[in-house]
Design goal:
Helix content is 63%, strand content 4%.
Length: 416
């Protein structure tokens, strides 16, 4: 009980830009960025610049928070880098004349979106720490009053009745136990984990309540819409993987189970930056770094033939095109968007689909499945991939294939 009292005391004594967050809370993950910002009394713009520099530094050093990056983590960071490059090289170029896109909001949403895929952050779910406790309190609607009210306002604005992400009646020890057993849960909640950093930033007056809400809306539900893989994952795979009892401990009486006792209520993107984050994230699934990122994510339960078939032929990017069609439908019906914003998003989705269709055609012309093997015609001599092909060899093959495709059809970050 003293531990929880300490957490709430930390956040109850607001003093303009004073460092009132305990070292224990800061001593994890983005502690360097937040500590530097607190000591220099930086504003939100500088905080975002520092986080972007941290992202680039992690990629260059192949290390995040003193831990060596796995292949999956490295490609996840490169994927975030790609989305930011797309914003600067395309979204803020010619088309910005018709709509007002907040670059900082988009970038912060992207920076926050995949933090939960890094092992340093994933530990917050199941290892007891001050920062991990703060995360769980926030997810249960029991965090610091200022940020909790802001989250409630956002969820109400998005149309939810519930105001919590995790069952508020479940003890933290039980939550940690469930998360420690099920990696699928950490994957499902990967977008939420950045909440803890933004709560600290808000409570320390590094960002305003308005910025806090905008950053969260640019990130939340960017994995949707609920079609294709995400629908299968949340409605069928996840409940089966974690079991009924653990499902109740985490999801009962949350935004996800308002309608039925299934995870079917995953929200939709909200606002122009939120929709752009979702659209570009979907597009990236069918392009070079996105394909490699997903390959690393599914390597433990797919052989080389299955990976190629899923990512380049049967599911992706055709499934991504279905997701973009659904995003188009949802965005055109979104009340918060202006006529110009809807037209802009429709144009972006059309161009994204055209780029993906080129990718589909490229793969169709060069890849075929024959006798449980994949035959690639990208060199003078066909390349054979079978179930025994090593993952490291497959990555080299895919990298060569994807590099050649981008040389022919253009880079993802310079969408035409």
């Amino acid at each position: 009980m003293k531990f929880l009292v300490l957490i709430f005391f930390i956040f109850s004594c607001q003093d303009n830009k004073s460092t009132i967050i305990s070292n224990e809370v800061l001593d994890h993950a983005t502690s360097v960025v937040l500590k530097n910002c607190l000591s220099s009394k930086c504003d939100s713009g500088q905080l975002i610049k520092d986080e972007m520099a941290l992202l680039e530094n992690q990629i260059n050093l192949k290390t995040a928070y003193s831990e060596k990056l796995t292949g999956s983590e490295m490609h996840s960071l490169k994927h975030q880098q790609d989305l930011i490059s797309l914003m600067k090289n395309y979204l803020l170029a010619d088309d910005k004349k018709t709509v007002d896109i907040n670059q900082d909001v988009f970038i912060k949403g992207v920076l926050d979106s995949d933090k939960g895929k890094l092992s340093a952050y994933q530990k917050l779910w199941d290892e007891q720490s001050d920062k991990g406790t703060l995360l769980l309190l926030v997810m249960q609607g029991k965090g610091p009053k200022r940020s909790t009210l802001a989250i409630e306002e956002i969820l109400r604005q998005m149309g939810f009745k519930s105001k919590v992400f995790i069952n508020a009646s479940t003890e933290h020890a039980e939550i940690r136990k469930v998360f420690s057993k099920h990696m699928a849960l950490k994957n499902y909640f990967h977008e939420h984990i950045a909440l803890v950093d933004n709560v600290i930033a808000l409570e320390e007056n590094l960002i305003t309540a308005s910025e806090f809400k905008k950053y969260l809306m640019a990130n939340l539900f960017h994995n949707g819409p609920g079609v294709g893989f995400w629908k299968t994952f949340q409605e069928q795979m996840l409940p089966k993987l974690i079991g009924q009892e653990d499902f109740k401990l985490i999801f009962n009486n949350t935004i996800y189970t308002e309608k039925e006792k299934k995870i079917i209520n995953y929200g939709r993107p909200y606002g122009i930056e939120g929709f752009l984050a979702a659209i570009t994230d979907r597009l990236s699934q069918g392009t070079a770094r996105g394909v490699l990122k997903i390959a690393y994510e599914i390597q433990n339960y797919s052989n080389a033939v299955q990976i190629v078939d899923r990512l380049l032929l049967s599911q992706n990017p055709n499934g991504t095109i279905s997701q973009l069609n659904e995003l188009n439908k949802i965005s055109q019906a979104a009340d918060e968007l202006s006529v110009d914003e809807k037209y802009f998003l429709k144009s972006i989705i059309f161009k994204a689909k055209q780029r993906l269709l080129k990718f589909v055609g490229y793969n169709r012309d060069r890849i075929r499945v024959e006798n449980n093997q994949i035959i690639l015609n990208i060199t003078a001599n066909p390349i054979i991939i079978n179930k025994e092909t090593r993952f490291s060899d497959l990555i080299l093959i895919l990298n060569n294939l994807l590099e050649a495709e981008e040389k022919l059809n253009g880079s993802f970050v310079h969408l035409k």
